[in-house]
């Protein structure tokens, strides 16, 4: 009984392989691995009873025997309408709006608005994310201030606003008839909040440019997860660009800069958290892709996922007593309140810009805009927060973005070529 506290107390030092400074670690209870298991236990307290209820209703054949005022709710949550679209394109993304009478100037204006909205939303989001997780609040000449430590509360703030925005959008606009069982959103929701938590928590140990490059390299595990979850096949050029991305990221991570500080050094904990982010995020995208076989709009997907995200995070925060503690932190530091609210607004608005851009101009244009956003985010972070990048690291960044643009070009060429081929023929043999 006396060994367990000693083991838990030694976990931070064992995981990072170096001494933990007070700026990063105040106690073993704040260590990311401990917090991860505490959060997971909170989610399990909701998931396990929900799973048992779903199994109970299915075994009871509730669709045939159920009655009462709760029948419609239970049917929607557990069974749905079980109507799937024949083609995935029917439900995944809205058909791209082909401008027939719109002038070129109008289309250019729309594109500029979309690009500006995406860049402003996500660049602001990135700067605020690094500010909240790596800097102190309330610092004076006599008081060093305090850091905000609960990443889960930031996830909750983002999800509650996204849930509200998506709900209002669905209520005010015409949407397809919903057919998916609601509980199926919980899988993507759980992996989504875990990936977001890892993303926030990783900034305590690694620099923001490193995190951005790690996000760019997530195409590799996405492809692996696609093979495992959706049994997808990929072209040769997709494997080539994935290899180039991994080479570029390796060049950046292995390069060393003499002026790196404790707050920007890449540690073992940061690498593990980045790996967790990539794995969870890869599962989220593939599970959502499978869910789109039901006829639904992207905003309905956004609403369904965020319903469970709010449920999981608020339940876990209440069980830990962390919700009131975070609200007290907001009351003590009005600057943090403004940052947290603006962070959530940028996240929610960014998602709407994503849907609109893909609907109007297609996925290729959207990918180019977001790839440029990643490059601007690294530059902005280096300018504002003083990160240093070596020559080798800069070459690694260039290789990564070259590979990303090559993916966009190759995918657009493949689509144009496939349109010219007769039905049933594929342009290149899949591997």
From TrEMBL:
<keyword id="KW-0472">Membrane</keyword>
<keyword id="KW-0732">Signal</keyword>
<feature type="signal peptide">
    <location>
        <begin position="1"/>
        <end position="17"/>
    </location>
</feature>
<feature type="transmembrane region" description="Helical">
    <location>
        <begin position="301"/>
        <end position="318"/>
    </location>
</feature>
<protein>
    <recommendedName>
        <fullName>Adenosine 3'-phospho 5'-phosphosulfate transporter 1</fullName>
    </recommendedName>
</protein>
<dbReference type="InterPro" id="IPR013657">
    <property type="entry name" value="SCL35B1-4/HUT1"/>
</dbReference>
<dbReference type="GO" id="GO:0005789">
    <property type="term" value="C:endoplasmic reticulum membrane"/>
</dbReference>
<dbReference type="GO" id="GO:0000139">
    <property type="term" value="C:Golgi membrane"/>
</dbReference>
<dbReference type="GO" id="GO:0046964">
    <property type="term" value="F:3'-phosphoadenosine 5'-phosphosulfate transmembrane transporter activity"/>
</dbReference>
<feature type="transmembrane region" description="Helical">
    <location>
        <begin position="261"/>
        <end position="280"/>
    </location>
</feature>
<dbReference type="InterPro" id="IPR037185">
    <property type="entry name" value="EmrE-like"/>
</dbReference>
<keyword id="KW-0813">Transport</keyword>
<feature type="transmembrane region" description="Helical">
    <location>
        <begin position="392"/>
        <end position="410"/>
    </location>
</feature>
<feature type="transmembrane region" description="Helical">
    <location>
        <begin position="338"/>
        <end position="356"/>
    </location>
</feature>
<feature type="transmembrane region" description="Helical">
    <location>
        <begin position="363"/>
        <end position="386"/>
    </location>
</feature>
<feature type="transmembrane region" description="Helical">
    <location>
        <begin position="236"/>
        <end position="255"/>
    </location>
</feature>
<feature type="transmembrane region" description="Helical">
    <location>
        <begin position="33"/>
        <end position="57"/>
    </location>
</feature>
<comment type="similarity">
    <text>Belongs to the nucleotide-sugar transporter family. SLC35B subfamily.</text>
</comment>
<keyword id="KW-1133">Transmembrane helix</keyword>
<dbReference type="Pfam" id="PF08449">
    <property type="entry name" value="UAA"/>
</dbReference>
<keyword id="KW-0812">Transmembrane</keyword>
């Amino acid at each position: 009984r006396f060994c367990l506290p000693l083991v838990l107390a030694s976990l931070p030092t064992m995981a990072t392989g170096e001494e933990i400074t007070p700026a990063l670690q105040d106690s073993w209870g704040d260590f990311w691995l401990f917090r991860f298991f505490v959060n997971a236990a909170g989610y399990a307290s909701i998931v396990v009873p929900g799973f048992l209820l779903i199994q109970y209703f299915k075994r009871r054949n509730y669709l045939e025997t159920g009655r009462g005022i709760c029948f419609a709710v239970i049917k929607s949550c557990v069974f749905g309408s079980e109507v799937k679209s024949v083609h995935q394109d029917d439900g995944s993304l809205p058909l791209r709006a082909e401008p027939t009478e719109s002038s070129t100037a109008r289309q250019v204006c729309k594109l500029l608005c979309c690009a500006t909205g995406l860049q402003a939303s996500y660049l602001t989001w990135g700067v605020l994310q690094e500010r909240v997780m790596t800097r102190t609040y309330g610092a004076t000449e006599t008081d060093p201030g305090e850091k905000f430590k609960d990443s889960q509360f930031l996830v909750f703030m983002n999800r509650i606003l996204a849930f509200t925005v998506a709900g209002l959008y669905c209520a005010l606009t015409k949407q397809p008839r919903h057919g998916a069982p609601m509980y199926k959103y919980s899988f993507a929701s759980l992996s989504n909040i875990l990936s977001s938590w890892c993303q926030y928590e990783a900034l305590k140990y690694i620099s923001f440019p490193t995190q951005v490059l790690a996000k760019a390299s997530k195409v590799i595990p996405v492809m692996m997860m696609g093979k495992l979850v959706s049994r997808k096949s990929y072209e040769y050029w997709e494997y080539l660009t994935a290899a180039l991305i991994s080479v570029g990221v390796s060049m950046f991570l292995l390069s060393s800069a003499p002026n790196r500080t404790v707050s920007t050094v890449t540690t073992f904990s940061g690498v593990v958290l980045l790996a967790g982010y990539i794995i969870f995020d890869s599962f989220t995208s593939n599970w959502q892709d499978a869910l789109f076989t039901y006829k639904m709009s992207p905003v309905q997907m956004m609403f369904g996922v965020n319903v469970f995200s709010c449920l999981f995070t608020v339940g876990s925060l209440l069980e830990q007593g962390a919700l009131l503690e975070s609200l007290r932190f907001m009351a003590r530091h009005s600057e943090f309140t403004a940052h947290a609210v603006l962070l959530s607004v940028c996240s929610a608005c960014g998602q709407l810009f994503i849907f609109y851009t893909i609907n109007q101009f297609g996925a290729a244009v959207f990918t180019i805009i977001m790839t440029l956003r990643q490059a601007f985010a690294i530059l902005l972070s280096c300018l504002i927060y003083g990160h240093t990048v070596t020559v080798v690291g800069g070459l690694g960044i260039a290789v990564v973005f070259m590979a990303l643009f090559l993916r966009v070009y190759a995918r657009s060429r493949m689509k144009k070529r496939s349109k010219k081929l007769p039905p049933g023929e594929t342009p290149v043999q899949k591997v």
